[in-house]
Structures are given as C-alpha cells and as structure tokens.
Specification:
The structure is a homodimer of 243-residue chains. Chain A is of the alpha+beta class and 243 residues long. The first copy, chain A, is built from six helices and twelve strands.
Chain lengths: 243, 243
C-alpha cells in the first residue's frame, strides 16, 4: 500500500553563523522520527561551515577580468575558483561545473541570503560529507536514523525557472533503480532510474519559501533507506549529450 | 506562517480506456478540497483521450528507417510524427522537441504501461487543455476549485535519472516569480523564478510508484492560485544555451 507523504517546514531556525551546530538547531524545532528525510538549503550548511567570502578580499585574476564584462570581476574570480570548467557564458549568466561535478549557474556562488552585503556564499566543500555529519549528529542528539539532503536551486536547459535539487545526501538512495521491473503488460518501465533525491529536494522547496527564511523541511513517509551520494547524480561528462 | 504539505496517492483507480472520465475516476477515490492540486500521470490522461497507436498500423517513412538503426523503425516513425525537431540521437536515445515545445526522450512516445503489447502511448494533443477540462469537470462533479497538473518523467542534461515534470497545467501558476524580492540583507534573491509546477510534479511522483500503478496524487496545502500553462515552462529556443 502506498502511504501519504508529509512535508513539514522547519520554522524558528535563527540566522546561522560559522561554527553553529545545524543538527542541534534542527532538532530544537522539530520532533524527528526514524526514516524522516531532513532537507536543508545549502545556504544554512555553507554558513555554518564558514564557506563565506568577503568580496573586497578577492583579487581578480586576469581570466576573471577578461570574462567579467559588466559583472563584478571579484565575483567572477570566486566562480572560477569554485569551478573545474566554465560551460557557457552569456552575461550575466556564467554556467560552470563545480568541483563536485555539478553544472549550475555561478558554480553555486551566491550573494543573496549572505550574512551581510559584500559577501558571497559558496557551496559546501563536500556536501555529501556535510549531510553525513549532520545525519550522525542528529543520531547522537535524538537516537533517530534519518536521511539528510543538502539542496540548492538550479536552473536547467530547456525549461524555465529553477527547481531545488540535491547537492549532498546521506542515509537514503539518490536514484531509485527500477531497471528490469515490468509493467502489467510485461514491458520494461519507461522511467527506470528515478532521481528521487532531486524530487525530494523540489518537494521540500515548496514549503521553504526563500523570502520568509525557512531554511529546510522534513519529508516524512518515504521510508527509503540506502547510502546514496548526491555526487552520483552528476552525469559523467562522457555520457552527457549536452555540454 | 508556512504550512505543512500533504501528498496523497490516488489509489484504486482502475485501468483506463478511451473515453473514460478521468475526473470522475479521481473524485471517486479521494475527497477533494478547494486549492488541492490534482496531479495525474500523462499515461492515464493520454489513454482516456485515445492517444494510443498500434505499432503494426505504422508505416515507417524513409527518414524513420534511416534514423532507426537497431530501433524499431515504426517506433521511430511515431516519434518523428510527434516531433518538430530531433535534438540528439544516440541509440537507443532519441531526444526530440515535441509540438508543445518540450524536449524529452522519444518525444514522449512510450510503450510501457500501454494498454497492451504492441501499442504506443503518445502525449496528449494539448496537455494544458486536458488539465483545464479535467479541472472544469472536477468543479462540476464536486463544486471544488482545484489545480490540475498532467505530468511525465523526463530526463535532463547534466544529471542522472528522471524527475517528473509538468506537461499540462490548469488553475495554478507554473512559475513563482519572485523577481525584485529581497533577502534580509537587501540583495535580490538567488532563485527568483521557481518552477513550482515541476516541483509539485516531482513531489507527486514520490508517492505514485510506477510499478504499483498509482496514476496520480493530490498535493494539499499549497494554496497557489493562478492561470499558468505548462507550455510556458518550455524555454524559448532563442534563450536556450543548450540545444
């Protein structure tokens, strides 16, 4: 039997600073249950990890000055440092591949919801490791076995608007692999590799409301267990038809 | 205050045939409330609309024979007829732009969950109109004002796996436009155009379970009203950096 899902916004989490214990902030505002998936916006995780840069501390390289055009070359420099490849540039858009293998605008470098003006927030160094740490800490604090996702808003080719996707994961599969399963007529299913972690990330976004500052949500009712890493959602370059 | 979301699977809907009243099948298995979003897998809508082809009734064109390679040329012919452009071919993948402007595998032509072997299911002729019709019929049957999405599983560049996205919409916005809104520090938000319809589609997929044959879900608690069309989620070719 299929079960109902509930998506509960994490309300009442204060502005986060470097060194804050994100797991503790979460368990203070919600009573977790086993198999819950705790979804956290990248921003809160990055800030707790001190992944923040002051614009005026950045000395732009020649390449940054070249690429920048009308953009702030210090911001472009930060993007270059976070990237392994610049995939496309159409000002003000810089689409880049991050060190984790994700392709997104500005390599995830962002100035909105930064601690103060003139600051940039970077993606966590290793968002899968961030998710795993938060998961362990939640277990320590509550005894609960949960999944954790770290998410960000990514644009995508061909479709307008952003959706939230998983950039870090721990304690749940990121892909549901249904290869070989058959429909009732006997055909293999159409969608056989379902990116559940991205669907959970998008579902959580629906209650997160960026303006009101709700930095996460709990998704309850999934009962997915596994050891996926969000990094495995990145399509290997050689299999990718569109880069 | 943020509210909790609930995602309720539509269980107990029988196999659908041409001419069936999908709205009636839905309201028989769930008590709808105003502002619910009824999410329906494309397959059920297409079958009710008779958008089904027998493979053995298809006479492949020369172009289909050329493109097919190891693929069934009749299937390729069906894809060509549903397409305005073939975007990439790497057997067995044919990525095409549909008449609606969506870019996806096989132009949405699919043999899994077809009524019987040797049949293909096509996308609805006009999925936004399908959604609008079902929405009106639900209002007629129940007096409830709901949103309706028709969804399908699409792959995407750069990331593994499929996520469900909206291909038809009625009675809700497909994009949440936050342009101009500011964070607490005063910066414009990072994600300013949120493809909520795609996030709702993905959220619903999490309870739909293709194998068990749950063809839809109700998303409750969003309270989004608007008149979006899923067609507007398709990125205009001239703005698309990746085709």
């Amino acid at each position: 039997m299929a079960t109902e899902l509930r998506i509960v916004p994490l309300e009442g989490i204060p502005e986060v600073a470097e060194g804050d214990d994100v797991a503790e902030l979460v368990v203070r505002v919600v009573e977790l249950e086993d198999d819950d998936v705790v979804v956290l916006a990248q921003k809160i995780v990055s800030k707790a990890e001190g992944r923040v840069l002051r614009l005026d501390a950045i000395d732009p390289s020649e390449r940054a000055l070249e690429l920048a055009g009308d953009l702030d070359p210090r911001r472009v420099e930060a993007i270059l440092r976070e990237s392994v490849e610049i995939v496309r540039v159409r000002p003000p858009l810089v689409i880049a591949e991050t060190r984790h293998g994700f392709i997104c605008a500005s390599a995830g470098v962002d100035s909105s919801n930064a601690p103060e003006q003139g600051m940039l927030v970077l993606l966590p160094e290793d968002p899968d490791a961030s998710a795993a740490r938060i998961r362990e800490r939640i277990r320590e604090l509550t005894g609960r076995t949960v999944g954790v996702l770290v998410t960000d808003s990514f644009g995508r080719p061909w479709r307008q608007g952003t959706t939230d996707v998983a950039i870090g994961a721990a304690g749940l599969p990121v892909i549901l692999d249904l290869r070989g399963r058959r429909d009732r007529v006997g055909y293999e299913l159409h969608a056989t590799m379902i990116a559940v972690a991205d669907e959970i990330a998008g579902a959580a976004e629906l209650v997160m409301g960026k303006v009101e500052g709700i930095p996460g949500a709990v998704v309850r009712g999934l009962h997915l267990r596994g050891e996926g890493r969000a990094r495995d959602l990145a399509m290997p370059a050689e299999r990718d038809l569109f880069r």
